[in-house]
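Data availability (excerpt). The following record was deposited with the supplementary files.
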Amino acid sequence: MDDEIQVSAKESDFQNAKAYMLSTVNTNGVNVYDHMCKIITKILSEKPANAVDAFEDISKALKKSKFQPKFDTVQDKPVVPKAYQIAETQKKLFRKVEEDELSPPEGEEELLTPLTNLMENAFYFEEAGIGASREEMFRVYLALRQLVDTYPLQKVRYWGKILGTNADYFIAEVEFRENEDPEEETTVEPNPNAPVKPVASEPVDMENLEDPLPKSDWKPPVVIPHEEKGSGVNKFTYFATTQLGEDWRRLPNATPTQIDIARRIKKLFTGDLDAPVLSYPPFPGTEKSYLRAQIARISASTHISPINFYMFDEEEEEPEEDAARDHYIENPEFEGVSARDLVDPTNANWVHHVQYLLPQGRCTWFNPAQRGEEEMDEEEDEEEREEPDEPEPEAGPALLTPISEDNEIDGASPWTLKLSSTRIGQYAVAVVKSNLWPGACTIGFDKKFENIYIGNGIKYSVENYSPIAPPPAQSEWATGPEVTEADDPTVEEEAALKAQEAEGGAEEEAAEEEEEEDDED
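Predicted structure:
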């Protein structure tokens, strides 16, 4: 009987082991049991001299025989190279233009293209040793033409290229024709880090509570509003793409909060406009908003033009007090400045033609002490109302201020000026490079100038970057008898208290009875 039980146990173990070996299957559908059977069969049929050493080789040979490639002998499936994919994307840039598209319809005048002559600018950039290859600039020119055919634009300019870790951004600066912008209102990306408002609950009568809750006197900080489309930081609209030939994506307008946080962080771009910006302080938006904030900062600091190229409109009304001019026109009497004068070490022949970006994140200062009508109505019922302190208005350099008044960088000039060629100065162009934003360059000669930026979008800093430390943890509440929790009484103490309360109740009843008897007498 014991032998039968032992045999049945061994058979059970064998069946379990066999079931396990049959259940383990690889990607080709071969299990361990069948594979071992084939190895043993091959060894018994071939009878190699050293079967132990040949065991692994036989196993590998059997696995190779079961390998099934992803192509067959009838039709191969070649791997599409990346260059071919890029060529397919850019193929529509080289579409042949029909003759009907070249000539305007009858009765209509031929409209001048809003696109600048990028290939001419590319030639001068190449002379100055900046910019990209001719092939890339030509593809950019074709992509900008595609943008002109898509939107009703009045002005299109190649702003530059911001390098990313996975892809690079090609950026176009445009200005729509009047009243033809498809987005009528100013578009701003919502803050994904904004706290979620709690669900409103039923109102509670605070006066009838036994212990009324304390009222908080904290008020949220004033949110600085963004500048409207067509003014200040959002004067121009920007489009970006990572692959020339694909559709251009419109960037949202910049907000003061985004510009303020962008100043406090250093973050390389990834090349994905929808990627989150992981930083501290948290950036209120995705990478497209961060890209737009950096464009605003770079433009305000590095876009310059020869002196007297632009002028203020004399027919324009004088601005109010403490208000800076924000509009200019081209000077029709501008006679040009020679390249040698443009590289004058005094930096007096170049001016900023983009408004200064205030620490507030706007070009025009907003008074945060101003309260709207709704806030005033809410505070009418309050007896005492504290008037906020009037903040000091922020101010910066006026428009068309010479770059000679720019702040130095650790005792060095923020600009580097040179000629493109010292041997043949007659045909040289003036090259101005920003030391504050490496990659920002300007070329100029006679009556022509052009700005471009090709860099990683990071501002130069003298000291090493140190992230902002998180705020200190809040301190604990001061301990005292009014906030200290009392210890729970023991069973004996509770019994004694109940007995004392019972005795006190009996004494009160006896006293009341005596008073009633005295009243009856």
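Summary of structural features: The longest helix spans residues 491-520.
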